[in-house]
Amino acid sequence: MISHFRTDLGIICAFIICISAVKSFHESDKIANLPGQPKVSFQQYAGFITIDEKQDRAFFYYFVEAETEPASKPLVLWLNGGPGCSSVGAGAFCEHGPFKPSGNVLVKNDYSWNKGANVLYLESPAGVGFSYSSNKSFYESVDDEMTAQDNLIFLEKWFDKFPEFKNRDFYITGESYGGHYVPQLANLILQSKAKFNLKGIAIGNPLLEFNTDFNSRAEFFWSHGLISDATYEQFTKVCNYSQIRRQLQNGNLTPVCSHVINQVSAELGKFVDTYDVTLDVCLSTASMQSEVRNHLKDKPKIDVCVEDETTMYLNRNEVQKALHARLVGVDQWTACSEVLHYKMQDLEVPTIGILGSLVKSGIRVLVYSGDQDSVLPLMGTRTLVNALAKELGLSTTVPYSPWYEGRQVAGWTQAYGYFLSFATIRGASHKAPHSQPERSLVLFDSFVNGQRLPQVNGMTQERNPLTRLTQT
Ligand SMILES: *[C@@H]1O[C@H](CO)[C@@H](O)[C@H](O)[C@H]1NC(C)=O
Ligand SMILES: *[C@@H]1O[C@H](CO)[C@@H](O)[C@H](O)[C@H]1NC(C)=O
């Protein structure tokens, strides 16, 4: 029904230059009100964009305009990873969207990224979240190249629907497997000569190079006290994590590696959140309710059950209706796809080199790491960015130094040349904005505004660094 409606308007527009009809393209995606949301002054849109009419493949998006002056703020696309996880579920409702679900209602997020930008959350590839392919054979083998191509088609069609954003400063951001999606899409945009005003990309705890990234896990576990000295030695010398990961993917785990990973698992235990080794885990839906109450009483506490709450929220009929969403070929909305068979060999395709070509093209690249993540730890990422800077012959423009949010250290940063920078977010998880929303927002705002991260903590009295280094 909806696609027929669009086709009719498309025909009308082919014959007459009709601004009002173009405008009504996105008026139909305007969200009146999300169930349980507090009153807000900015506009929200959601709906499907057809990627392939013949195969009936369509992407679902959720778009939030900037809280103030959206016409003068940049446009930012956000992509979660997986591969196969939802940017609406994770990015919008658990990380940096305007609201977070809490029980039956949505609570305003005070550190939402739409304070400084218009933010577009995309569920990609087809098979993720509400995005679908009617021809289910599509799900049998989806890879990075197909994903980037579909993402580009999505953007072209989305800009047709929102033409006022087409010349806007445009940034692509994401995390985790977004370390593939984001640079690959940026690269395709440059190659395709699409007339988007791409200014930069930012990726958090990204997968950039299989061996370096995954092998940094051992050191992270060990240095955070999650595994013993003896196991660390096995884990680095006998069978390392990239071997284990590769063998698990190919279904041929050797007895030696099996022994090592069992030892690691036994020492880690079942109740540590590897995406943030300092966070508590969400124990159950039942205990979640008391967590929610605690959360409301005690504001700064992080709701570790927000993912479960998002899943419940997005599966409510009235919520799907308000979002102009519907389920096609699946019974439930899930945070990560249960139908998609992603080509796992693509995990081994390095994307660090793509960052290099983006930098050379004058696209700003920010790579950041939540420093409590053991899944794609900061050490691997920092090593890769350092090596890239060296390879590109970039000199350090901001030496490795702390940056600040308020009066406290928010992380460390280093910049190379004018287009490449690295930053950690102190105390942050794999999904950095989930556990460190204020620090993440400062990083995000600095990035889209092309500003240096705050280098002073606003305190007049400097503490003597040497005293700190010598005292125990
Ligand atoms: C369904 O998709 C598969 C794989 O993309 C393709 O080979 C096939 O031709 C499609 N089927 C139809 C009926 O279009
Ligand atoms: C991991 O193990 C493989 C196979 O032994 C080896 O080639 C590689 O160098 C190791 N990586 C690290 C970081 O130790």
Automatic annotation (TrEMBL):
Chain ranges passing through the membrane: none
Assigned GO CC terms: extracellular region; vacuole
Family annotation (InterPro entries): AB_hydrolase_fold, Peptidase_S10, Ser_caboxypep_his_AS, Ser_caboxypep_ser_AS
Protein localization: Secreted
Gene3D superfamilies: 3.40.50.11320, 6.10.250.940, alpha/beta hydrolase (3.40.50.1820)
MF-aspect GO terms: serine-type carboxypeptidase activity
Keywords in alphabetical order: Carboxypeptidase, Disulfide bond, Glycoprotein, Hydrolase, Protease, Secreted, Signal
Main localization (coarse): secreted
EC number: 3.4.16.-
EC main group: hydrolase
Signal peptide: 1-24
Domain of life: Eukaryota
Function description: Probable carboxypeptidase.
Family: Belongs to the peptidase S10 family.
Name by which UniProt lists this protein: Carboxypeptidase
Protein source organism: Fraxinus pennsylvanica
Upper classification of the organism: Eukaryota, Viridiplantae, Streptophyta, Embryophyta, Tracheophyta
